[in-house]
Structures are given as C-alpha cells and as structure tokens.
Amino acid sequence: MNWLWETSVLDGWLPWTILILGILGLAWLILLFQKVYLLYVVPLAAVVSILLVVLAKWLIEDVWKLFADPIPLNCYVWGGLAVFAVLLLVPRLIRGSGVLGRIVTVLATVFAVTMAFSQINDHFSEYPTVGSVVGINNVKTISLDEARNNDIKTVELGQWKKPSSLPGEGAVITAPIPGATSNFNARPAKIYLPPAYFTEPRPLLPVLVLMAGQPGAPEDWLVGGRLTQTMDQYAAANEGLSPVVVVADATGDELANPLCMDSKLGNVATYLAKDVPDWTKQNLQVDSDPKAWAIGGLSYGGTCSLQMTTNYPEIYPTFLDMSGQLEPTLGDRKRTVDQAFGGDSAKFTAVNPMDIMKTKQFPGVAGAFVVGKDDAEYRPGLTQVFQAAQAAGMDVHFDTVPGGHSFAVWSAGLKLEMPWLGKRLGLP
C-alpha cells in the first residue's frame, strides 16, 4: 500500500481526478429538473452559503482576530462551495428518487466537499500525499529512552569516522520539553536524529531548532515541511551526518499567537532561549557550543527565528527566516502593544528585531532569508528585514523559490539552505 500513501495530492493524476469528480458532484446536486428545486432550493442554498462565509470572515478577521494576516479570498470561496454542497444534500435526497439516486447524491456531496478542501490544501501545500492526509507516514519513530542512551561514547565531529553499519535513515522522537524556567505550556516537540546519531562512538552533532507557523503545530514540519525526507537526503550525501533537529512548540496552541516574546501572552522567548537548549543538552548527546546551534522557522516561526537571534545572539548566532513578517504582530502595532505589553510601546521596541537592528551591530551572526516568488503578502516585508540585517552587520543572504506562502516553499527552502547551514554549523 506504500504506493497509495506516497501518491501526491498536489500534482499528477489524483488532484485532477478530485477536481473533475467534484465538478460532476456539484452538477448532480444542482441539476435536478424540478421547478421548485431549481428556482427556490438552489438559490436559497447559494445565498445562505454566501452569508455564512461572509459571517465567518467577519468573525475570524474582525471579531476574534485569530490570525495576524487575512485568509486568502480563494480559500473562502472554496469553503463556501463546500457549505453549498452540504446545504443541498438533504433537499436533494428528499426530492430525488430511488436508492441508487440517493447513493449518488451522498457520493456527489463527498466529491464536492473533497474538491473544495483539495483546492484549499493546494494553496497551502500542507498535506502533500495521501498518507499525510490520513495521518500515515513512513517516518521511523523511537522512544525518548532509546534516544538518550548517554552510555554511548562520544567524539568530536572531526574525529568521527563513518562505520560500515551506518543506518540508512534517521528517526523521530516525540518528547515534552517542559517550561522549567519560563512556565510556558508547550506541546511536545518533534525531534529528528540523523543516522550518525545511532553509531558508536557517537559524533557530537550540531542542533537546529525549528518552529512552525500560526496556526500550526510541531508536526507540521514533518508533514507539509517534509523534514525527515530533506534531512535523510542531506545525511545520505554527507556520510550520515546532519544536525539534530528539534521542532519546538512556539505558540502553545494551534490558534494561539504569543508573538515569540516574553509578555502577558506567555514567556515564549525564555522557553526557546533557556528551556529548549537546556533540555536538549541534558537529554541528548549534542554539541553544546553555540556556534553549532541555529534556529529557524516558517511564517510565524521565521519571524520568531530572527527575534531569537537579535535578542539572544549568544545562544542562536545562526538563523533561517522563511517567509517571516516585517515584525511580530497581532494585526497592527497598537493592538500588539496593548495586548502583549499593556500599551507600553517601549517594551515592544526593546525586543522587536527591526528596532533592535537600528541601534545594534551583529558581526558574528549569519542568516538566510527565504520567501516564495509569488508571496506578495510577505516578500516586501522580508526584503526590508533582510536589508536591515545587512545594515546591522549580519552575514546574510536572500533566496526565493517558486510558490507563494505555502509548505511547498518552506520544504523547498529548507532543502535549498541545508548545504549552507551544514557548513555554517561545522559539518564536514
């Protein structure tokens, strides 16, 4: 069944099949040639769908303000089509005839809803395969106890030699990293360990701390971000060596936005600067030298990576900012300052990277900025941040990859930057 789980839902025959079946499904739901159905039921369902979508947009973006940035309009359109299909299900079942016709009606609704979600997923590229959609992947997993066998002898990278028994792939562990100092309530981290970690003697490997977006969760990097595939490929080309990757939770909840700062919204900065490194060094055999540590992320996580480097360059002197924002935000500067710092703008500017880089130089810091070529929302702001980083003395570069604000960009961006990142972190 591996062929099925690895089948792409973004390219090839399957997304086209879903689209065609969805269009046929909508046609079946709409085209029942009864006067009352065509003149009253279908138009009413369409009006209700539009009103529900408008209401949802208003609540999400104006009332609840769940996300710092607006949801793309096409996602609302596809969501509205899904609602439209569901609203037509019951009247189509009632006014239709025959068991077979009713079965086709149910299938038509499923096809139409699947088409809508497929198109939304195509925009974000969060689920690349059938397996990822249903929660099945081929990632090798081990327990934390298996990973932290500290009885294994360790050697410096320069002294390590590739053994003949090197595993062919890395493994992932799931582990809670407590907020011992910060009191931040984080979800369990996902940690990638490369093949070389499972050898004896064990090389002291560098560490890359990664963060997801908002909304998001650590597992996003394993699914849409294709972390294990990228790191396994990199390790295969480098004698089994790659960084240990700690995908830490920087939001605490799927929809939370604590801004990656120490504020009224939570002590995320202390969690990432103190708790995550301390736990990693205590539980895994890794290089403890800050020169061997980097931090990175996508969208919110990209913004967060630069926040951590500018505020804690002695801990994270290397960063990877993919599609990050101009500055951490809850929608606008006033709302951000009010909710995070009780209206004290000085506290915000004291930790905001764009303000810090105006007055401080970072000659020992290096970083990469990556953004989608078609990301009209984030690319202009990230370009300004890149220029500010250059002016602040950082050794930085700026890359673009095809796509918009999506996992297709972030998975490709990580793969693109790994050769530079590995060299920066001291991998041979």
UniProtKB/TrEMBL annotation:
Keyword Cell membrane (UniProt): no
Molecular function in Gene Ontology: acyltransferase activity, transferring groups other than amino-acyl groups; hydrolase activity
Gene3D superfamilies associated with the record: alpha/beta hydrolase
Keyword tags: Hydrolase, Membrane, Transmembrane, Transmembrane helix
Listed transmembrane segments: 12-31, 38-59, 71-90, 99-117
SUPFAM superfamilies, sorted: alpha/beta-Hydrolases (SSF53474)
Chaperone as UniProt keyword: no
PANTHER family named among the record's database cross-references: DIACYLGLYCEROL ACYLTRANSFERASE_MYCOLYLTRANSFERASE AG85A, ENTEROCHELIN ESTERASE-RELATED
Name of this chain's protein: S-formylglutathione hydrolase FrmB
Species, as recorded: Williamsia limnetica
Source organism phylogeny: Bacteria, Bacillati, Actinomycetota, Actinomycetes, Mycobacteriales
